[in-house]
Amino acid sequence: MNKPANLRDYVPLFIDALNSIHPSWRPCFQQKEVASALRQCHELYKHAVENQQIIYPPAPQIFAALKQPVDSIKCVILGQDPYHGPDQANGLAFSVGQGVAIPPSLRNIYLEIEQDLGIKPPSHGDLTAWVQQGVLLLNTGFSVAQAQAGSHQTWPWFVVSDALIQFVSQASPACVFLLWGRHAQNKQPLVDTSKHLVLTAPHPSPLSAHRGFLGCKHFSQTNQFLTQKGLAEINWQIS
Predict the structure, then answer these.
(1) Rounded CA separation 239/232 (Å)
(2) Tell me: the pLDDT tens digits for 94-115?
(3) Residue 1 pLDDT
(4) CA distances to 29, 34, 35 from 26, in Å
(5) Contact criterion met (CB below 8 Å) for 200 and 188
(6) Distance of alpha carbon 5 from the chain centroid
(7) Could you say which of 9, 71, 81, 116 is catalytic?
(8) Cα–Cα distance between 89 and 212 in angstroms, integer?
(9) Which member of 133, 145, 156, 168 has the greatest number of CB atoms within 10 A?
């Protein structure tokens, strides 16, 4: 059987999330191994909810990063887990909604942008403006238990995210992959470096940002690469 059965039969909690993605991503989810992993994650998610666990983000937001066409992706910023505090996780790596306190890692990202490009940090952590320009804010895990960082790392979310990284590598004509920290850098073999640029640095967490993330100049290098490829630069300024 080349195609999996209709996911609607297996992942009802995730149907709203899957229906919200751009249609160009759907072939990735039709891969047998991805569909199988998604069904396993669904059963784990369902079991956790039935046992009164609080999980972030809410199921409809799990694939919020996938609302832009895959061939429009010009930059991938790879995170690990969603935020595990109330009102933080929204399906976009490193991003939080307006009115939510800016997390420390994102503050360091803003600090590096200011040092690199002279752009003053915004007063909020909503990165939607980047997404609309072709920045994929992808976590390698798509859920987490409240107040338990890394709690779902044993779930097969990595099968899904690995497939999505490869899918972008295949579909995007030219893309910059920003891999911060060892976890993200382990995904480098999934990227076709003959046509894409991979930039690595320590994670922007306060624990490691001063070991090389600050000063990495990844944002200006991203725009230089895009310009060389005849693509529009990303406006990193958020109003």
Answers:
(1) 19
(2) 999 999 999 999 999 999 999 9
(3) 39
(4) 5, 11, 11
(5) yes
(6) 27
(7) 81
(8) 26
(9) 168
